[in-house]
Amino acid sequence: MLSVFGDRQTTGAAVATPPPRGAEAVDAALTDCAVYESGARQGGKVQLEQALQLARACEDGFVWIGLHDPLPGAVELVGEYFDLHPLAVEDAIHAHQRPKLEHHGDMIFLVLKTARYVDDGERVEIGELMLFASKRFIVTIRHGEATPLGPLRHELEADPARMARGPGVVFHAIVDKVVDDYANVIDGLSNDVDEVEATVFSGLRENPTERIYRLKREAIAFKKAVTPLVTPITRLVEDQQLPVPAEARLYLRDVLDHLIRDADAVIAIDELLSGILQANLAQLSVRQNEDTRKISALVAIAAVPTMVFALYGMNFKHMPELGWTLGYPAVIVATFAICGLLYRRLRRAGWL
User: Fold this and answer.
1) Nearest C-alpha neighbor of 341 from the set 300, 308, 312
2) pLDDT computed for residue 112 by the predictor
3) 3-state SS of the chain?
4) Where are the transmembrane segments (predicted)?
5) CB under 8 Å to 36, separation ≥6 — which residues?
6) What gap in Å lies between CA 157 and CA 210, rounded to an integer?
7) Is 87 exposed, middle or buried (0-12, 13-18, 19+ CB in 10 A)?
């Protein structure tokens, strides 16, 4: 267990509905709020203002609150109820934070980037998950659609013996779920990278440059989500000043191993895409050179009859065919023979 962890009306226009505030804002964003004691959930969804008091009334109880895309007012109210550090609350309100770990008194604040791969559009959807952990509560604030926590909550609730070990189990399970979802994104990116690599080296006269750039942009965005998380998780495992018990460190070490593997994989994908892009540009340059050589060879062949017929066109008195019956056919045959020899020579040289 982580032991220390007013409307204004306008004429002729629809009246704008003001955004919910305070408790209404919390209810709009609240996915679940439950109290757990001895690993068992105590009743259904509880009111936010009662949750912490109920958890403290239990001998070893804690509360797990989940918010999804909350408004600033909802985050501020949760911060007031659970006495969250103002700087952490400010980060949760503004979102768009880099993965990081902060330690405020008896509370741990962890920022993770969630991710999912949309294969139809070949894009990575990056979300954000703020995780507040203490000995009496777990608060999750999720932005975006990636890594929903509802199924994870049901899975943990089905195992009371596991939940009985406290909020540290929930903390580890959430981090592990986020990192496991990275593997699905890597698989999706890898499949598309394999396809574009096969296209580049297939010999077909296609130009997948736009697709390569698009995949590389997604890989870079995903790399920015994964690689910075290595430092916070490493600190959770190794920093003895943080209130993380030995059992939790052991499980988080396994998460760290998976995260490092994922970080290496996404870096390799990014480098592979760079290599594929360079190979594709090199092939385009080779194709352009081949086209230029073919055009030059055809121009050289066409220059022979052009020159011969141009010379004959400038002299109408001493043309051979005027005094020799076979003169005109002989010139034509000689011209095409020279063209044939040029074609054969250029063909052997690889220009045609």
Assistant:
1) 300
2) 92
3) CCCCCCCCCCCCCCCCCCCCCHHHHHHHHEEEEEEEECCEECCCCCCHHHHHHHHHHCCCCEEEEEEECCCHHHHHHHHHHHCCCHHHHHHHHHCCCCCEEEEECCEEEEEEEEEEEECCCCEEEEEEEEEEECCCEEEEEEECCCCCCHHHHHHHHCCHHHHCCCHHHHHHHHHHHHHHHHHHHHHHHHHHHHHHHHHHCCCCCCCCHHHHHHHHHHHHHHHHHHHHHHHHHHHHHHCCCCCCCHHHHHHHHHHHHHHHHHHHHHHHHHHHHHHHHHHHHHHHHHHHHHHHHHHHHHHHHHHHHHHHHHHHHCCCCCCHHHHCCCHHHHHHHHHHHHHHHHHHHHHHCCCC
4) 295-314, 326-343
5) 42, 61, 62, 63, 64, 163
6) 46
7) exposed
Using CA atoms, how far apart are residues 57 and 55, in angstroms rounded to an integer?
A: 5
Report how far residue 42's alpha carbon sits from residue 62's, in angstroms, rounded to the nearest whole number: 10
pLDDT of residue 9 exceeding 70: no
Identify which of 196, 152, 155 has the alpha carbon closest to the alpha carbon of residue 175. 152
Angle subtended at Cα 134 by Cα 130 and Cα 135, rounded to the nearest 5 degrees: 150
Residue-wise burial string across 195-205, b where 16 or more C-beta atoms lie within 10 A, e elsewhere:
ebbebbeeeee
**Do the Cβ atoms of 78 and 139 come closer than 8 Å?**
yes
Q: Kindly state the tokens that stand for 210.
A: 């736009």
Both tokens assigned to 155 = 């899975």
Cβ atoms < 10 Å from Cβ of 339: 17
Of 18-22, 36-40, 292-296, 337-341, minimum mean pLDDT range: 18-22
Q: Nearest CA to 4 among 167, 129, 200, 118?
A: 167
Q: How far apart are CA 299 and CA 307, in angstroms?
A: 12
